[in-house]
Amino acid sequence: MTRARRLRALSMMVAAALLLVSCGDQELPQNALDPQGPVAQKLANLINPVFAVAAVVFVLVQGLVLYSALRFRRRSDDEAPRQVHGNAKMELGWTIAPALILLVISVFTVGTIADINSKAEGADVVSVNVTGHQWWWEFEYPDRGVVTANELHIPTGREVALRLTSDDVIHSFWPPKLAGKLDVIPGRANFMTLEADEPGTYFGQCAEFCGLSHADMRLRVVAHTPEDFDEWVRTNAAPAERPTEGEAGEGAALFRQKGCASCHTVNGYSAGELGPDLTHLQQRKVFAGATFDLNEQNLRVWLRDPPGEKPGSLMPNLELSEDEITKLIAYLETLK
Ligand code: CUA
User: Fold this and answer.
1) According to CATH, what is the number of the domain 126-237?
2) Ligand 1: which atom is nearest the Cα of residue 170?
3) Residue nearest atom 1 of ligand 1, based on CA coordinates
4) Rounded to the nearest whole angstrom, what is the distance from the C-alpha of residue 134 to the centroid of ligand 1?
5) Of the CATH numbers 1.10.630.10, 1.25.40.390, 2.60.40.420, 2.40.30.30, which one belongs to the domain with range 246-332?
6) Is the pLDDT of residue 70 over 70?
7) Other Cβ atoms closer than 10 A to 204
8) Which atom of ligand 1 is closest in space to residue 184's alpha carbon?
9) Which residues contact 133 (CB under 8 A, 6 or more apart)?
10) Is 64 exposed, middle or buried (CB count within 10 Å of its CB: 0-12, 13-18, 19+)?
11) pLDDT by residue (tens digit) across 223-281?
């Protein structure tokens, strides 16, 4: 290697290292290495020591490779390396050492798997049925009479027992700061426990390719203090009030005429089951697989052409006029 080429290789390595280091400076909403609850902490307690062991092995092996390449490199054209034939001690060593390391790792791994897969039970546990749909999440609180979409609301400091299943294809539920990743399979129930230490919003998404808008199948876990959670449940368990006058009243009528009611439930008004329950839509910050912030402008864009915004969306383009959209939004804004 010439000096210039060596210099170029070195500078590229430095640049790559800088690039990797700079990743750590940003806000990372789905950082799986930043546990925010006991379940995620158990995973971190497994990952971190395994990574440390792997790092030591990596440095050791790569160091030896580098050392051998430099120390025993050919220095002239007619030089042949010294021929050796086996070394029983070393061969035994590098067979037994990795076997022992893997044995220790597998003991801790199996223990952690059993631990995080044990079903949460007890009076304090919050049960939620999670259903994956192409492409949004349904969250049902069977003991509380609440159904919502895309935002999973939980109290802090309590175990939340999720029962996950799918309505169509295989999805994967993944809230990286609170728990691991679990397949969501049609015709089968999987169970996951999660828990958040602090109130806040934790991001997640579907982690199994599930069709055209897989990337638009995001989710949020919103952790409240226990008091705020009870308040949230009270609000969301109540039926919706139906406006009868003005734009909102006309919007409510359109909600039936245009067929919205045959796909969406508004508790006390409609009972559609294909799309998200809209009874307390305004309690959410996002909609359409948690891809849009919930506001008037985004709702307008969405209602003009749902499949244009979320490719493959089961919600069709209803060819609504701007006036109809205005009225429908006025109605949706009453769903508090
Ligand atoms: Cu659901 Cu990917």
Assistant:
1) 2.60.40.420
2) 1
3) 171
4) 7
5) 2.60.40.420
6) yes
7) 23
8) 1
9) 166, 167, 168
10) exposed
11) 999 999 999 999 999 988 888 889 999 999 999 999 999 999 999 899 999 999 999 99
